[in-house]
Specification:
The chain is an alpha+beta fold. It has one domain. The protein is built from three helices and four strands, in the order H-E-E-E-H-H-E. The chain has a four-stranded antiparallel beta sheet with strand order 3-2-1-4, with helices on one face. The chain is globular and about 30 Å long. The N terminus is likely disordered.
């Protein structure tokens, strides 16, 4: 995964390892963030600030669960995790 994503600085869509992802989760709570899991199962990258166009790019992934995304974003303050996509 990119150093940018691991350090939490702002990243661009091109820096994200789309071809190495196994899942994308949305964690809701005091502040929602996305969690990207790599196919090797060892790397987890939290994205507290999604780059511009990130959600639109996610929605183009085959099998993306838009209902999970909406449910996660609609529950501010509630600690929960929503699986939005699996490879």
């Amino acid at each position: 995964m990119s150093t940018a994503a691991r350090t939490g600085r702002s990243v661009t869509l091109d820096e994200l390892p789309w071809d190495r992802l196994s899942s994308v989760r949305l964690r809701s709570g005091s502040q929602a963030d996305f969690v990207l899991q790599s196919k090797d199962g060892r790397r987890v990258v939290p994205l507290p600030v999604a780059p511009e166009g990130f959600i639109e790019r996610l929605q183009k992934l085959e099998g993306f669960d838009n209902a999970a995304l909406v449910a996660g974003l609609a529950r501010p303050g509630v600690e929960a995790e929503f699986i939005c996509w699996r490879a």
